[in-house]
Amino acid sequence: MKRNSLEWAILVISVAVVVALVGYLLVSGLANDGPAMIRAEVTAAEAAEGPGGGWLVPVTVHNEGEKAAVSIVVEGTAIVAGTEESSELTVDVLAVDSEVELVLGFSGRPEGKVEVRVVGFESP
Amino acid sequence: MAPSRKDGSDGGHGRSIDETARDHLRAAVGGLFVGLPLLWTMEMWEHGATQPPLKLLLLFGLAFAIVVGFNAVSGFRRERTWVELLVDAVQGMGLSIVVAAAMLYVLGRLEPELGLPTVVGRIGLLSIPVAFGTALAATVLSEPEEGGGREAVGPIGRLFVAAGGALYFALNIAPTDEVRILGSEADVPLLLLAIVASLVISLAIVFIVELPGSRGGSRSGSRGGGPIDHPVGETVAAYAIALLVSIVLIFSFGLSDGLGLRGVAGYVVMLGTVASFGSAAGRLLVGGESGDGQGSAA
What we know:
The complex is a heterodimer.
Chain A: H1 5-31, E1 38-42, E2 48-49, E3 55-63, E4 69-80, E5 83-94, E6 99-106, E7 111-122
Chain B: H1 17-39, H2 42-50, H3 53-73, H4 82-106, H5 116-137, H6 155-173, H7 177-185, H8 188-208, H9 231-252, H10 261-286
Helix pairs in contact in B: 1-4, 1-5, 2-5, 3-4, 3-5, 3-6, 3-9, 4-5, 6-9, 6-10, 7-10, 8-9, 8-10, 9-10
């Protein structure tokens, strides 16, 4: 069948994107077999003062594993005015090789280091 | 695939660039018409990001097969070879990938920080409903060529189209929590009622109610000798396909994880209800056997 130049261009692009998509899914599907690996870290050393006298601490959560995770609970603890205070957030979905930035709130300026940990998550 | 080809009998002649551009624009518009509800659905973004690549590949492959089958039994240029059908289908899927990617980007669902697995997963999953739209555009949105009517589709071809309709309808609701709730809360008598209702309603849509494309006049008997030439036989076969499509979707989305057999059965029946409506709607689109019984099968 005779094709004009536009049809050829569309065909070449179509083959390229279909092969790229299928190839990527195939290769990553065959290569990835491990679990999700979630890591949380405080992004900025200095917490910023939030509205109403609270303090906001930026945290980044990474998925360095080979499967996605959902309902990831991240908890941060810090000493505020002499007592331990905790702040918790839930990340709905975190795909492979992805990261998300959160902000944990505390009632006042944390004294010393803010500790963050992943409490748990669900494997979809 | 995508573009409608109105050069039915003169396949050897080239088409102008204007015609090609118009055909592909029409296909892209058809893809958007059909794909928009799912492009705007949060569960689809999440499943695109979280489902294992091989499951997404399975769904993509299923959609590709359905598009090839749909192209084989519909449209106006019926004398395409299998190679041409495959090339058309690849072109349709390619166009769908581009349309889905563009729309997801406009919606802000493809941010680079999401990572390549999420970006590719979302595009791959959402290109499926768009691909059905581009395939439909070849028939529904295009005008018949002069003197040429739409050829009738045989029973096997109609079942192929039934699978496409079932997949499209079921894809719209499979990822939602509502189906899981309906399936798990329904008791056995209610599930049996849902099965009977699915069969009766799809029989009515295709063979009894006088809708465009329905075959009210042929409800009394079969044209061929096979069991699926009969309205009841075709309805049961199309329902079985709808259930099969539901099972594939439930497995592909990981919705059966942790569910017992009873839970899975409830899920399949409830999703199958919608899938059976889709299979009926798909068969309406392609009509039935022509009066002289010359319709060709896939």
